[in-house]
Every structure is written in structure tokens, then in C-alpha cells.
Amino acid sequence: MPIIGNDIVDLTDPGNKGKFRDRRFRDRVFTTEEGRRIDAASNPDAMLWTLWAAKEAAFKAAVKLRPGLGFIPKAYRVLTLRWNLRADGLSRGTNGAMSWEILLEDEGIEIRDREKPRRPVALIHGRGRGDTGPGGKPPPALLPASVGRATTSVARWGLIDTPAGCLALVSWRSSRRVHCLAATNGGRNSRGAPPDARILLREEVRDVSSDPSAAVRRAAIHRLAGVMQTSPGRLEVRREGAPGAPQGPPRIFLDGRPADIDISLSHDGAFIAFAWSMKSAGL
Questions:
Q1: Phi first, then psi: what are they for 58, rounded to 5°?
Q2: Fewest C-beta in 10 Å: which of 26, 31, 35, 130?
Q3: What is the per-residue pLDDT across 101-150, written as a single tens digit (0 to 9) for each?
Q4: Contact at 8 Å (CB) between 6 and 60?
Q5: Is 229 helix (H, G, I), strand (E, B) or coil?
């Protein structure tokens, strides 16, 4: 089962704007190479928060592999982050022998093999109305995910080095938010291995008057209950650390017992986001 971490940043939040000018923050968080990427970016704020979200997501996964690990941002180095976006809103890439494309639609994203007759491979809804089941095997470099209410969302993928090993990295960025996922491959740290289809990802726009921590836990439980076809009352999110240690990462409990499901939670500004990793995507 893949070990995962995710993080989301609301790019429209006033506190997140203009952060690329904060030299003390940058010097503390980013490596020299990452700093060059920020300076060279057409949107330096978006690049800064993409790198930050990648580091946060990687830490959330790494601390499960090495309990007690501290978060020293410069120790989490984004090694590669690749993407391609055409002006017509079409993102293309090649993964191994399969050519695929992402079509950005009002109702979601359609991922398809562009070498074959047009048919949906996976439809990704992004307006909080529920996930659509995959119509086929998705490209292994991308995962089923909602994309919020943004008008365009660009997927990028790469690697991030951590004190617990190298993790696969997937990032989605729109004009409104950045969302990153870091994952092992089948619970192992294998270089270059993308996250697999057993990972389910979801993001939603929250009611800003609600407590974000409670909102993301509640949303995750209800969505997971639907996937498992069980009652939300049977599920609980807890954070339990070792005796005398701070609280550990969140865990899913089913009927009071730890479930064989990895979970990661995140929230920022108007967004909440969560991801699960299961033994099988059909759990």
C-alpha cells in the first residue's frame, strides 16, 4: 500500500500573495536551486507555493516512514517537476510508450490516450458533486482527483528527495490553488516510480465560517464511507503518537480499530483536500 502525503495552498489568500519577496522565508525554506526556479518563473508566487506544498506533502509521507522525523524544509529537495501546457488549454505528456492528454473541461478533466479513438479513460469531477468512477486504467503518472472550481489546472509530476528516501511527486496548479501529492510506490521508496491508482484524491471548497480542521475530517470521513459503502459513524480520524511523543499523523479507525488505509489531510484558505491510499482502489 502506498504511503502518501498531500498539501494544498490557496493562491488567492491575501497572506499568500507576494511571498516570493520575503527573502528571510525563502532563505530558510528553499535550496539555492529552488530559489533560482522561483526567480525564473513567470509567476514566482505560484512557483514558491508549489515547491512549498511539495515539501509539506513529502514530509507528511516521510514522517510515516520514519516516525519522529522533523520538518527541515531544505532537507526536502524537489528534484524534478515537469509539465507542458499549450495555449489552447491542452496539457500533453508521454509516459513510457503511452501518449496521453488532459482535456480541461468545465465539468472536470478527461484523461485519454491520444493515439486511440476518443473515449474517456477517466473523468475527474471538480465541483463537489461527487467522483465519477474511472472508465479505464488512468495513466500511471496521474491520479483520479478533483480540481476545485478553477478554470484550468495543469498537472506536473516529478521526484522529491527526503530524509526517508525519494518519493514520487504529482502537482496540480490553477489560478486559484496549488495541490501536491507525494507517495511511495507500493509502500517502497523506489526512485522515479509514480504513485499508483490505489490512491484516491479529493479537494473541495469549504464554507469559510467553518473550522477547517473539522471540515476536512468530516469531508474525508463522508467521502471514504461512500467509497467503502459503509456508515460514516463507523469511521473516525485520530492522531495518536508514541507514549511521551507529540501526536502522530492522522489515521483512519473503523469500528474503533486502525484500518488498513493511509490518509493525508490538508487545508488552506477556502480549500480543504484529502487523499487516501488503500490496498485496492475498489475498497
A1: -65, -40
A2: 130
A3: 443 333 334 444 445 544 433 333 333 322 322 333 333 333 333 333 33
A4: yes
A5: coil
